[in-house]
């Protein structure tokens, strides 16, 4: 169901936080950064968000979960806001992020192997004779 097909729901910051599993302080932070538009206010001054902000916040959260930086997300949101534009730039950004993730995975595998090597050096003695300490200090 698209945003246009849903009835318009209004959320307080607390309701939006609960609906998106996001802390209220994070929502206000994203609003302050301009990732979320400034919320409408009630006469009492409470923020009111709509389905549009709900969906935008989910977009931000899912993008963060995929490792995109806030600057990257700002760019992705700018692209997503231009509904009739080509998705080539969006695809390119996703492919770039995928390559960065693959690089991090390779780096993590290398770290895993080094930690396994260090762990295998341990003979359970005393720190003074510890091969791990020697290796980490460049003496081993």
Structural description of this entry:
The protein is mainly alpha-helical and 140 residues long. It has 2 domains: 1-68, Multidrug-efflux Transporter Regulator, Chain: A, Domain 2; 86-140. 61% of the residues lie in helices and 3% in strands. It is built from 6 helices and 2 strands. The protein has helices at residues 13-20, 24-33, 51-65, 70-81, 88-121, 131-136; strands spanning 40-41, 47-48. A two-stranded antiparallel ribbon has the order 1-2. The termini are far apart. Residues 1-5 have low confidence and may be disordered.
Largest sheet entry: 2 strands, antiparallel
The string of secondary-structure elements, in order, is HHEEHHHH
| CATH topology tier name of the largest domain | Multidrug-efflux Transporter Regulator, Chain: A, Domain 2
Number of strands: 2
Query: Rg to the nearest angstrom?
Result: 23 Å
| Average predicted confidence as pLDDT | 88
Shape label: elongated
Give the CATH class of the largest domain. Answer: Mainly Alpha
Strand fraction equals under 5%
Look at the helices and sheets and give the structural class. mainly alpha
Uncertain runs? 1-5
Q: For the largest sheet, list the strands in their spatial order.
A: 1-2
